[in-house]
User: Fold these one by one.
Assistant:
Number 1:
Amino acid sequence: MGHLSYVRPQTLEAALDHLDRHGGATKILAGGTDLVVDLRNGGVRPAFILDVSRLTELKGISLTEEGLSVGAGVTLAEIQASKVLQQHAPALWKCAFTFASRQIRNVATIGGNVAHCSPCGDTVPPLVIHEARAVLADRKGMRHVPVEQIASGPYACSLPSGEIILRFILRPANGITFCDFQKIVRRKELATARINAAAMARQEPDGRISFLRFSLGSCTPTPRRMPEVEDRLMGRAPTLKMIWEAGRLLAERTIAVTGRRPSTVYKESAIQGLFFRILYPLVRS
Amino acid sequence: MDSSAVRIQFTLNGEPRSAECPVETTALKLIRDFLKLRGTKEGCGIGECGACTIILDGKAVNSCLMLAAQLDGRNVQTIEGLSTGEALHPIQKAFVRNHGVQCGFCTPGLLMSTKALLDENPAPTRQEISEAIAGNLCRCTGYRQILASIEDAAGRGSRKD
């Protein structure tokens, strides 16, 4: 390993100054649970580690005028303990319970999970259904970017090296009657998702769906919504058959993005099955 | 702080400590190789097995996934801080009584996860215990004796720091 320096700025301004000068040679450390593994196996070789874990500007969960704000430095354990998220972003709250292990949840952050750009990051589908925007800062100012646009590919972050994620702004789940997060894993705990997904819906008293957001994780190189799949169920009172068919459409649209590969035989059925498993509670008998 | 070595100061098992190490040194390596406290174990080195669990500001964390620099200014407890001299901590006694130890490699990590759990929640349900130690793998016991040990430790409720 070459010369490596550790920098822990006292203020956000100092962090942004550092990134302005050395961003390209810097890896940002929030919790470090992914970064330390990458450093160890030589996957990354930065000249600087910028430890932002103690910056208060990256902390906190609150309802604001612009939406539900979740600091990039909020840990998964903090998400798990948050009554505000339980009420206003239940899928995000739920995903924290099965995220890695207690030890990792105590340290790992939502900002790190998003910026690491793993296709199977568990916080990503819940953020996507809330149409979350990341608030980014650099030395010149701030801008908002939809969470779907942060990854440019698996483990590839599109954000300029001078920028840092401050927080996420989620559309709160007002009037939502249904919300869920589920994943398919090889064991119950400490398991990386093979497939994960989040959904949020509003169902009218007559059973019709008047609002639906669904996001599938782990299957495409970058996160996305599938509006055609949502549209298939919008305005309708779903039957089991409709949900099964919408799941089929989701699998087809996903394969249209990835192409057919050896794992497609499994994923095709698994995507449809997971979609069905999440959404069948919307069927009124 | 901006150089290829980091100087850190922290509290380790109640005592103030300082250390200097290369930036890439993990907290685990600092504890084992620099400070010569070999109770904390390295199993997988990538946060899967929990053998390296320590308590940082009251919370269980994997020391293999953390840089030594991240300990600066914080309160760290390792397995060496659990007993008082020769006197075992009540959690350790409960593990002995219930045969919660076989080869012993996972034990320091499990004890630290248990300590963090019981400090926060003195009367956990079996489900809460199970969730708290899900990040600690044991290849010997099949976990039943470990769960029994933790329930026993919680039931006796005579923990001390």
Note: The radius of gyration of chain B is 16 Å.
Number 2:
Amino acid sequence: MPDVKGVLLPAYVLADESGSMGPYRRELSDGLLSLCESLRAEPMIAAKLRLAVLGFSDDVQVRLAIADMRTETTVPQVTIRGVTNYGAVFKDLLYRIPADVQWLRGQGYKVHRPVVFFLSDGQPTDGNGWRSAYGTLVDKSQTPAAPNIIACGIGDAKPGTMVEVATSEQFAFVAKPGVNIGAAISEFFAALVSSLVESSQALNSANPTLVVNRPDQFTMAIDEV
Amino acid sequence: MASRQPPGQAAPHGGWPRIEVQPPSVAFEPGPPRQSAFDVPDTECEGWSTDRFTLRAASVRGDSHRWPRRAKPRQDCVRATVHERTGTLVFAVADGVSGAIHSEYGAREACRAAIETLVEQLVRGGQIDLGAVVRHAVSRLTEYTQWRLGMRPDEAPSIKDVSDLFATTLVTGIVVPMADGGVLVDVCRVGDSGAWVLDRTRAPYDAELYTPLFATKTGAGKRFVSNRVAALPQLPAELERTQVQLNASDTLLVGTDGFGDPLGDGDGEFGALFANQLSHPPAPLWFAHVLDFSRETFDDDRTLLAVWPTHAGEGR
């Protein structure tokens, strides 16, 4: 039997491309560029990650298929369009993540539980239509590759919604009231990079947990009851 | 003066280029660990024989701790000695939890405490109590925390205090030469470090080349890899302990996950490499060099202790 080639952390960035993100397209693009450059500058960290970037609005479009960032030369480009359909996101991940995990295993890797970084500036325009796919996605008995989801809300995204999307209360964040949304997007990507770097180090050591750093300008989302 | 290599750039190949296991890691010149870690060298190795066994041991800083931007000291440790009256080998291997502030010292103190307790028990005679050995290691870490935090003798640090500073895994035990010429291993562990028996007659490729003495975390059948480990000062409800008799063709291996993770089930190229290199006891420096293999994504500290039994008078 061939050796295990390594143990990888599959990471997915879900970027909201709905119309309301239009004024912040530049910050989104700059954030993705910074993410790619940061990982290229850290070849040992990048070796333990596989990164995918998905843009979502009416549907999900692949901006970067799961890739080894040491060798990936393209920079994902976002396209502002449509509404904020959460259901499209979770239906897409429901087939995408297991397929990616199976593909990575086929390449000879072991995998850590995948992680999703979800960034949205709005409430779901599909009402409760996303809940069924979401429920299946995060249920480990139905989806063995169920991901950890970190949810970051800006603009109109409500704390309660981020808490519902995140797989742990500690993984739900919202931008502080009145904060510049462009700056918050930049902070999201800075925290994303540091979380990936620290998780990549921690997951291959004896340290037990996924490291999730709260972005500056964000607070932990607290659901209202 | 020797030529200097800029930090982070590929080191020139000297006489002993790193052994590469495909795909290899990037080559770079290591950065120094933090200034307080001056007595934790990048690599340690050890080697000697008695008339009943040969020992090799090494502990090597992993690439993730050598990387100049985030260089840290090696957080693994290995210690071994012989109880002179009985000829019993006493050993300890520890892997400091990277989240702990001074895990390099936690690993070292756990090894020291384990060795001292085992030797005391051997001197005293009677049954070996590995549970007491582990508890004594926790006591040592607690005392060390008390001193480090400047507490009064009547102040007791919390488990969290100890864990935050010195959390570490521990594998410890003895190798006992028996009167009938056999060799008995008695070993326990806390955490995800491991122990294996290498059957050298099955080298280089065989599904049963390496027999794990404890469950492994990256072997076949593990769907998702978890790194949630128990570590001292936390004590498990029931201590994992096992005893095994070594044949003349067996080699006992005790190691941290920096060795155990790439080994997996041991039936691939990595397992074959070590089976080949350990077919006979190599020179101690070479043993450390082999353990300093280069392999992409496997960048944790590595520590390995190997014991080859010999029959009286056989020698190596």
Note: The mean pLDDT of chain A is 87.
Number 3:
Amino acid sequence: MTRSRALSGQAVSLLAALAASGRDWRHGYDLARATGLRSGTLYPLLIRLEAQGQLEAQWQAPAAPGRPPRHAYRLTAAGLALARGHRAAARSDEESPRPAGGEAYS
Amino acid sequence: MSDRTARRLAGSVGRLLRHVFPESQSGWVRAMRSEIEQVEDDRAALRFALGCLWGGFRQAAARRLFSHGQGVAMMKIKLRHPRNAGIACALAATALGIAYLVAAGAPARYPVVNAAAFLLGIVALGGLGGARVQARVHSGPLLLALGSCLLATALAGASAQGVSRWIWIGPLSVQVSLVVLPAMVVAFARGPTSLGSVGMGVAAVALALQHDRAMAGTLALGLAILTIARPRPASVGALIVALAAFAVALARPDDLPAVPFVDRILFTSFDVHPLAGAAVLLGALLLLVPSILGRRDDPVPGNARWVFGAVWLGCIVSAALGNYPTPVVGYGGSAILGYLLSLSCLPADARSARGRAETAAQADAGTPSALPRGASLA
């Protein structure tokens, strides 16, 4: 059973970057640059997301001769739903009315 | 560092990844290595590779400490073993040293070098301490070979003001005695054979030739503790040569000036900030912790641990008294590597402690000694 727990800010940032690409494949270094995550944080997150079924990965043929094949990633349907859920929750937090401190103490 | 060197280092770090990540993640290791090759900028590739390595270490540490589902209790038990405690202390001391270097405004590469030395030492310790040595490896020839390395450094190493203690590895100078001597002394304590005694004697002569009062004194102190704990002809002979070498080193001039961020920092760090001074002092003291940890069922009470403590106490006291490197907390990877390598000669658990007891019994009976795993490869 997949363990459910609050996602870290780094995981949310990675999910957002992957979700922005929709069904397009992304690469590790490209994701690191897009999210500002260090590779030592990025790969453990990718490994965890894949283990949880949120991420799918595939090997892509080398773009140029002499280059190794490249590992590429994109969110699964479950991953996309998770990313959308987080985005919606974040949006509703931003839009919820907050008490105005100045008024409360005036 | 040149771009070419950075690219080569990135490739080397990439090759290390498979030793850090578990077999089940070998596909991910391949993915990381492939991605490292795709990064066009050489330095960025090195940063990317080091990041992957660091991520692997974090995962491995978490697995080791918590994978058995016993959490903190398991961690406490593991930390009671001198080698595990030593790794934790080395990590803390390196981190405190890096904090000092940053606070003191050291050049940016200094903390990087120390961190890289720690990672390298951990990899070496994993390779040496974790490998099960099936065949018996005699300690004597190994100690003799390491003593000869010290002698070769004294005769043909890089010199400063007539003193030859270093070799150049790429852009870095390495003080060979700091890397190998602590491990040699602890390995010798676990199996003091006649040939090992010769190896220690050669090392002592080399230190006298290097005008190195600090390491010569450290060697003499370690052997003195060993001889007091376990007086045997091999250790007595080595001690006599080491004392003579120390006397010679004391009689010879050693006028090397203090190097910023390396020497004298036990005192100067307090000028930076009281907290920086406290970090340096605490980091240095942490190095001694493995020597005071033991188990009630330890079959050979203390010998190797006491000698380990004496050796590192010797290094710290030397750094306080003269212009010698402050181990682990000061700038320089040699002591960090040396500390982690010397940990490989300490028992990791009760089973290897029993192996040590057998070794000691063999040595005492005058038969060739077989070093327990790890110690044989120091």
Note: Strands of chain A lie at 26-27, 55-60, 70-75.
